[in-house]
Amino acid sequence: MGEISCPIPVIDLSEExxxxxxxxxxxxxxxxxxxxxxxxxxxxVVYGSDSEMMxxxxxxxLLKELFDLPIETKMKxxxxxxxxxxxxxxxxxxxxxxxxxxxxxxxxxxxxxxxxLMWPSGNPNFCETFETYTKRLLELHNLxxxxxxxxxGIVDEEYYHSHINSMTYIMSLTGYKTSNKVDQEKEKFxxxxxxxxxxxISILDQNGVQGLEVKAKDGTWIPIHFPPSSxxxxxxxxxxxxxxxxxxxCVHRVILEGKEDRYSIGMFSFLKGTVxxxxxxxxxxxxxxxxxxxxxxxxxxxxxxxxxxxAEERIKMFCGA
Length: 321
Ligand SMILES: O=C(O)CCC(=O)C(=O)O
Ligand SMILES: [Fe+2]
Hints:
This protein is α+β, with helices and mostly antiparallel strands. The protein has helices spanning 15-23, 29-40, 50-67, 71-74, 108-118, 124-151, 157-165, 237-242, 279-282, 296-305, 311-319; strands spanning 10-12, 42-46, 90-92, 97-103, 167-176, 189-195, 201-206, 212-215, 221-223, 230-235, 252-256, 262-271, 274-275, 294-295. Strand 3 and strand 4 form a beta hairpin. It binds 2-oxoglutaric acid and fe (ii) ion.
């Protein structure tokens, strides 16, 4: 059987490409971002230089180091954000699947105190690598947000800055240690059931081991193979509300195969406060106001209780107009 080419758009936001575009009068890349979000709820973004890619390899070595620590150590990472009590700092979800969540992940102090908990005698390599990494992911998140706003004609700088300044990020580090599953050499098994995420926009990364799949509009599952130097960007539940129903959250799952351990990182963006449809998107004959404003943190426990309902149904139950 021949390879089916992946229909998911790849958007090049690398520095060279952005400079080139600026020189050419600018390819309307912000429209590509919006179109990808509206059509697929996700896209690949090429971002960062080759030397940064080398460093990204380091990130996943460090995740192995982290998940190889004794469970008692990993359990010391407790939730440090009392406003989101329903998200744990550490989860052991099965014998092969565990994850660590870092709250306010873009603050260097968060990375340092996490590293100190995990490695009391210090791990400067972890701190340096993750501080740089989260900084880049934050820049990327802000760039994508700005482009999306621009494409919708929301060019109010004050609105953009107040939105960005209201964000907080949870970085979720996940390990799927399939090598622990000695008896299931060839069988595929579910790492994460189909779901959408509860935040606004998630940025995903992984080591070289495949497993992530997204559900296309026709119901088929598309395996996600990251192009070189890319991250995978997905729309989450709160973006459905913010966009007044224009952007459907991306349904995704993780299917594991073989014995190679898989490590992934998700940078999840939450609004500290109210998610609200901007006037520009509410005031349209095809898009009458669909959702009431809602408190993003208050949504999380509801989301968790109803995680496997279709996102549209869940959101409508929570804040349908
Ligand atoms: O492991 C992955 O690639 C995806 C993780 C994910 O979907 C999640 O944490 O919500
Ligand atoms: Fe997810």
